[in-house]
Structures are given as structure tokens and as C-alpha cells.
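User: Batch of two.

Assistant: Item 1 of 2:
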Amino acid sequence: MTGLSGSRDDRSGGPRDGPVPLASALADAVDCLAHLWSDAAQGASLRLSPHQLRGLRILSEEPGLNLTALAVGMRIGLPTASRLCDRLEAAGLLERVLHPHKRREVRLSLTRQGRRILHEVASRRADALAVVLEAMEPAEREAIAEGLQGFLTAHGRTSEGRRDSGPGP
């Protein structure tokens, strides 16, 4: 067990002994963060599933996507994406607008209420995370900041390597 869950195995030197114990500690932290994230989102004025929030987030980053692009971005099938959009539209969070030059294509955009709910959820999540970070020692917060930067840098390098290598022979 990792030290994050409070039941550290004293025989191990801790998460700094190598990538596998650190990966386990990080997985515990991600579980904790996901729980905190979910609780904050569920306290918003309109409860949305993580799936719905993800769809709204994608559309806020790329307004005007069509249904196919949304499905690809979410890694879901077209029927699932269509039902998701039906629910978001019925809740007043999404609008479908005909493409001005392509009669058969519909663009998806957040409504003002959709943007407001997304902002509310993001704000609640940041506030919940700030409470936990405030309870940490300054040196611990600094260590997390440095570690996250290193993680993101390494992720970028490994992602580029996968893209550059392409499919095998």
C-alpha cells in the first residue's frame, strides 16, 4: 500500500524507490482527486455526469464541432454522441446550428447556460482542490508543482515518440 492511503508498508523505502511504487502512489492520488472532482461537480446547480461534462468541455474548447468530430474527440460512437447532445440540448446547455455552407452538417455550440454551468463546475473544483492544497506545507505544494511540471514534460516527450514512430513495418 502507498503512503497516501495512510497504511504505508514500512519495509519499503517509499514512492521514491522507483517508478512502480511511485506509479502506485500516483494512482492513489488520482483516485482521491477524481473523488474530490466528482463531489465538487455534483454540488453544482445542475448535476451532470462526467460524460456530459467532458462533452461540454470539448465543445467549449472547440465551438462549432459537428457530431462526428465530437464523437471522435470523446472516443465514443455516433449514436452515443447523438444521445448525449439530445440530453444537453434538452437541458438548454447546447444548441445545434446548421452549417452555413454545408446543408447536411450541424454545428454544436454551448449556450450561455452551458458556459455558465461549465464555469461553475470548474470554479467549484478549483475551490475544493485549493482547500486540500492549503492544508499542505508550502514545501509539499512546491514539490507537487515541480513534480507535475516534470510529469507533463515527460508525457509530452513520450507522446511525441509514439506519434513520430508511427505504425511498425
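Item 2 of 2:
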Amino acid sequence: MLEPLRQGLPPLDPAAVSSAASCALPARYEAVREARQFTRRTLDQWDMGDRFDDVCLVVSELVTNALRHALPANTPRVPDQNPPVRLHLMRWTERLVCAVRDPSHDSPIARAAEDDFSAESGRGLFLVDSFADSWGWHPLAGTLGGKVVWALFLLQPQIAE
């Protein structure tokens, strides 16, 4: 069901971004709660609170995957000076993109839909695929090592009253 993940972000004109926000997340599992709170505040500021449930679920899964699978085993799980994971929220007129940057070069691995759904974990990317309109990942270049995993939500155009 899930297509190969090594694809680029859909073409979006960076100059057309109407709003953008990001936050650094430390290497500890409490960062998932911090990401949800950041997402709530940001969507409320953008008057998009009605999209919170779907977007928050996707953000939670992307951040959890970054913390669980993308950090080296010896990464300290305490606050540090250089948080290894970063959440970006970007809004265009008809699109919202959630992107999570992490230091790993490994591609995300999605389990097949027919895998054991009674398992405690392993369904994160399946949920992302189910709730977002599209998603993918791409490696970072230059001095920024790692990758970005993103999810795109299509928005209804605002109708002037």
C-alpha cells in the first residue's frame, strides 16, 4: 500500500508561504508532548484549530519515529545545547506541511498494512499515510546532515464572506 519513500517534497513556491514556524526538540520522549503543544499553539494562531486532531496525530508519529529510530543509541536523552530533532510547520494558501528533521540518513521503513495490528508499535507511518494527503522524505545536503520526513495536508480554500 505504501509507495517507496525516497521522494521529494511536492513543488511548493517558498515565496508563497503565508506562515511558517519551527521548534527544536530535545532527545527525550517528552518532546512528543512539546511538539503537540507547539502544533496546537501554531494552528490556533493560524486559525486552523479545526485541523488539530489529524495534524497532531501525524506530528506525534513523525516526532516519535525521529526520537525512536533516527537518533544514535548513545544520544543523551536529557536536555542538551543542540537539540537533534526539529519540527517545522509551513502553511500555504491551500496546503499545510509538517516536516521533522533528524540526524539519521536512514530511510523511514513502513510496515505492511497486514502486519500485526495488536502490536504496541510499528504503525506510525501507516497512520501518517492514512491521515495526511501525502508524505515522503528526502536527505539533507550540505552542512545539515540527516533527513526530513514530511506530511502534506490539503486545505480548503478560504471563502471571503
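Residues 1-8 have pLDDT under 50 and may be disordered.
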